[in-house]
User: What shape does this take?
Amino acid sequence: MTSLEVEVGGLKLKLPFMQASGILGGNPEALEIVAKGDVGALVTKSITPRPRKGNDPPIIIETECGYVNAVGLSNPGKEAIPKLVDVGKKYGLPVIVSVAGTNEEEFAEVAWMAEDSGASAVELNLSCPHAKGMGLEIGMDLSLSSEIVRTVTTTTKIPVFVKLGYMDSLVNTASKLLELGVDALVLINTVRAMKVDIYALKPVLTNKVGGLSGRAIKPIAVRAIYEVYKELRAPIIGVGGISKWQDVVEFMLVGARAVQVGSALIEKGIEVFSELKAGLLHWMQEMEYKNIDEFVGIAVD
Assistant: This one.
């Protein structure tokens, strides 16, 4: 019998699908919508110690190849975590709390709240491309990101994942963070981008620069996962431009054990997870694979 169950970073999933942080993860009602789909886990919006307003609109713009957004990490703050985790308990699904901050104390503060609330894992956001002093700026600073990871991994017992964006030092950064106790990598976040209004004669987004998501970044994500898996054989959750089941297979062949879906969830709704499940299952049966472990990373030499 063909099984879609998989284990990644100490987390056992009945299905290898989940939504990407930032999509339907900021309040219990939104998270419950995802929980009703064919997912193996729920991912919250990136949470900071205190509520954060984010950027003024416009914060997202559709392009011919995806979306450019600069939400600015708006979120309800750590006090909202218990109710978010309760949604997972209601539906019997692991909840991964995405964590954001500016230093190790802020990351640890939110991670502790997540653990105390019963979260199954935390995902440290070291890759948001449009929040000043946060996200990608931290991920590109190996000293600071190492201190954050060291602090969180040594003071929490639940699995710790790290979400990294594409950068020249990706393999080296991933290697160092894994050495410090990270249980799995989430690759990749959106890619820095912008759009200019040719009649207003200025950038469309208030923040000017945002992060590109959607189909355009899928080949970049595939390359990133391939390079990291080839060198490190690390547990990886792949994310970036997945819209159909063939994308899921491609991500897994280069090393991803599970995947997250963002833009396609906006376009297709939670039905996208049913499409991915049916397609992956059919392909595995056609290829005579009994479980995902049999082909993860098989395209990596």
